[in-house]
Write a structure and sequence with these properties.
- Chains A, B: It is an enzyme of class 6 (ligase).
- 2 copies of one chain form a homodimer.
- The first copy, chain A, has 442 residues and is an alpha+beta fold.
- Chain A folds into 2 domains: 21-336, BirA Bifunctional Protein, domain 2 (2-Layer Sandwich); 345-438, Anticodon-binding domain (Rossmann fold, 3-Layer(aba) Sandwich).
- Chain A contains 13 helices and 23 strands.
- Chain A has helices spanning 21-28, 44-63, 77-83, 85-88, 111-119, 167-187, 244-252, 263-267, 319-329, 359-372, 386-396, 406-411, 429-438; strands spanning 32-36, 39-42, 67-68, 74-76, 94-97, 103-106, 130-139, 154-164, 192-196, 206-213, 219-224, 255-257, 274-289, 299-301, 307-309, 311-318, 331-332, 335-336, 347-351, 377-380, 400-404, 413-418, 424-428.
- In chain A, strands 3, 7, 8, 9, 10, 11, 12, 13 and 16 form a 9-stranded mixed β-sheet that branches. A 5-stranded mixed β-sheet of chain A has the order 20-19-21-22-23, sandwiched between helices. A 3-stranded antiparallel β-sheet of chain A has the order 4-6-5.
- In chain A, helix 1 crosses helix 9.
- Chain A is globular, with a radius of gyration of 24 Å.
- Chains A and B meet through strand 1, strand 2, helix 2, strand 3 and strand 4 of A and strand 1, strand 2, helix 2, strand 3 and strand 4 of B.
């Protein structure tokens, strides 16, 4: 994509309404624009990141054996009356009346609807176990939306639901999701720490929040240093095997949010293993047994002819929130530092002197070759000051920058910069191409 | 995917609420379930088709130089007051009041919001031309929703918007979209015919509907037979070239919907070139000049310092509607006949005798090899009657079926069936694999 054509309205100044760094950087980089309070439009740069995150979430859900479907945003109030949550939910639920005066709502979550779908088709033990998920926009009418996409009103969430014959089966589903969450966040460059959690309005017996550490996190968290050094992607995970030992490994050491904090247990750790930090919730999983299947009558026949209510769990990931959370965890004073797996482009190619007889053909040629090699490039071909180009590239945080200036062009060389470390090498255009093409899919 | 695990609740009986064939077949094949009147959940089989159609639309928008972003579903009423459409829209607009008593709405289209986004960032002639699109759920509160996803209330639409300095520039954008629509529908196996159209609530001077022919179409259409024989995918299209001659080729011969029909002109055609049929609208494009940019003040400075309102167009494709429309255009009395490009799986692999010592290892092995080769397979490994398996495979309409029975297995052979023609060959498993793997991406 050429910068001269790309719709990326960056801002020079810090917008005054943004209190936290991710909100500030997303506005400045032209990733999002507020449409109404707590409601955002995703401009092309932000949309690309959102899609990459969504795709990682999807791949890891699929890998764990979860099947994707898509439920609508607008739901019937009657269904929520069956579970008793229509009245419980209060003012955070956006309530709507249609032209025939039927009461509807903009779904804040989907336990009721998925349970209805399941009960209308499942009849026997052969229809379970089943794990189903969707990635859909939700609405929560927050009283004071803030922090940009981190706490918006309209937000994109992945929510999965499991259906099993009994508590033991539900535990297996819970473990699959637990492990798949570790993998999902690790692929985005995040070290997510599972912490025992309250169940809130979803209800249930067993629940973990997945928390990433960031100075600007919304809540205080306390954990054993061991969590920070673990490498989950190196594990070879077979989702059909017994995952209990792995889950145990990740739930034995101390980790708790403010609400669940046990100062005595934490204090008993050696001082150098005590981590006190701020955390951002990026995922939340629940096992709630028959809380929804009983009132909604989601039942199946067992092999010996009994009728039982299925055991269920639900599993959420805040997809749009993750865009902000990753920035909170990965930025510096110049701007965003994207992990490669979610970067909107892999490399920014900068022609320092647009129209120059040496730099322009060299930059055009490298752009064409990178594109042919399947590398995603943002090519700054604009006729603006070098300083402005550098500042914008650092702001939007692509993993690599390739800069072509008159001095280098004379020698056939480019400057190859790694955004995260700031390291710069002078290498041939050919070598830059090879570096970028071979890192593809890394 | 193994059928024993796949969530595909098919129905044996025709659902009584479904009046048209696509609605009936989508319910029977377990592609969708109604959540509320005119609002559907997309089950895994239907979701796969929806995603394939969405991806073709996306690729062709990108190819034409259109950039993807994503606007929210919920919009502010105030913005629609600026264009004057808040009152015009009537009861089809789903109006919402939030917890702070602010008037909101569920967007039925996005001219206002995209114009606001553009006006807040564009300043000069350098910021145009620009084409932006999104693929987002919309809501129209139809008084009598019917025909399943063909006329639902919550529906997925691709809407693109163009911004240009003048009418000539806008015409170039219009032509790009015109041609990209021909390509988009052709890739889905549809012969879409552009017909001059009324502009309705969008307004404007120039408009075409893209209509596909189907017996169950909603409106009568009249066209020259020439349209039915054209092959658009064989054209090598350069979107930067002058597309006017190509657009002219597609708008010269007679084609009109009921509303715009000119019986005299149609009657003047030779009898054998007169096609009278039913049609389904799958796309609609508009040029409306400064209808929105003037009231909403979307202005830029020209090269000689004048301030002008930009010329705009908008361009819609009914993504969820297309799922139904393709079925209307492609089915037989046994079920759906998917074009390969949008089929949920490429092939259905049937083990006629689950558990059999000869058929099962052969089917398992072919399933594994097809999967490794990147072929999307639905593997019917269930222990049910052969007749039920055949009926279900025909119903869901995958392009190819590979059937492994005891007699064939003894000879190392499978039955390879092409759903569209019904042609069956007895070939080796190896040959079936080669046929399917080589057709990949065709």
């Amino acid at each position: 994509m050429r910068s001269s054509q790309f719709f990326m309205p960056t801002l020079r100044e810090n917008p005054s309404e943004a209190q936290i760094v991710s909100h500030r950087l997303m506005l400045r980089a032209g990733m999002v624009r507020q449409a109404s309070s707590g409601i955002y439009s995703w401009l092309p740069l932000g949309f690309k990141v959102l899609k990459k995150i969504e795709q990682i979430v999807r791949e890891e859900q699929d890998r764990a054996g979860c099947q994707e479907l898509l439920m609508p945003t607008i739901q019937s109030a009657d269904l929520w009356r069956e579970s008793g949550r229509y009245d419980d939910y209060g003012k955070e639920m956006l309530r709507i009346t249609d032209r025939h005066d039927r009461e509807m709502l903009y779904g804040p979550t989907n336990e009721e609807l998925i349970t209805e779908i399941f009960r209308n088709s499942a009849k026997s033990y052969r229809d379970v176990p089943k794990m189903l998920y969707h990635i859909q926009w939700k609405f929560r009418d927050e009283v004071r939306p803030r922090f940009g996409v981190m706490r918006g009103r309209e937000f994109l969430m992945k929510d999965a639901y499991s259906f099993d014959l009994d508590a033991a089966g539900a535990r297996r589903a819970y473990n699959k999701m637990f492990v798949s969450y570790l993998r999902t966040f690790a692929r985005m460059g995040l070290q997510a720490i599972p912490m025992a959690a309250d169940t809130g309005p979803i209800g249930g017996d067993l629940s973990h929040e997945f928390i990433i550490l960031a100075d600007t996190g919304e809540s205080a968290v306390f954990c054993d240093r061991s969590f920070i050094e673990r490498d989950v992607l190196s594990l070879d995970i077979d989702y059909d095997s017994d995952l209990e030992p792995l889950v145990k490994q990740w739930t034995t050491d101390y980790a708790a949010t403010d609400e669940k904090h046990d100062a005595a247990r934490f204090g008993a750790l050696p001082k150098d293993r005590q981590v006190e930090a701020r955390g951002i919730e990026v995922g939340h999983i629940f096992y709630f047994g028959t809380k929804y299947s009983e009132p909604l009558k989601a039942q199946v026949q067992t092999q010996d002819g009994q009728t039982i209510s299925v055991h269920m769990g639900s599993y959420g990931i805040g997809v749009s929130r993750l865009v902000g959370a990753i920035i909170e965890a990965s930025h510096d004073d110049k701007g965003i530092v994207w992990p490669e797996s979610v970067a909107p482009f892999k490399v920014g190619l900068v022609n320092l002197k647009a129209g120059d007889a040496a730099t322009t053909p060299m930059a055009d040629d490298l752009y064409a070759r990178l594109t042919r090699a399947g590398v995603e490039v943002l090519y700054d071909d604009r006729d603006v000051r070098a300083g402005e180009k550098f500042a914008q590239m650092d702001l939007i945080g692509l993993p690599y920058q390739v800069v072509i200036g008159p001095r280098g062009a004379a020698k056939g060389e480019v400057e190859f910069k790694t955004r995260k470390t700031g390291a710069v090498e002078e290498i041939s255009a050919e070598a830059a191409l090879n570096k970028l093409a071979s890192r593809q899919g890394a």
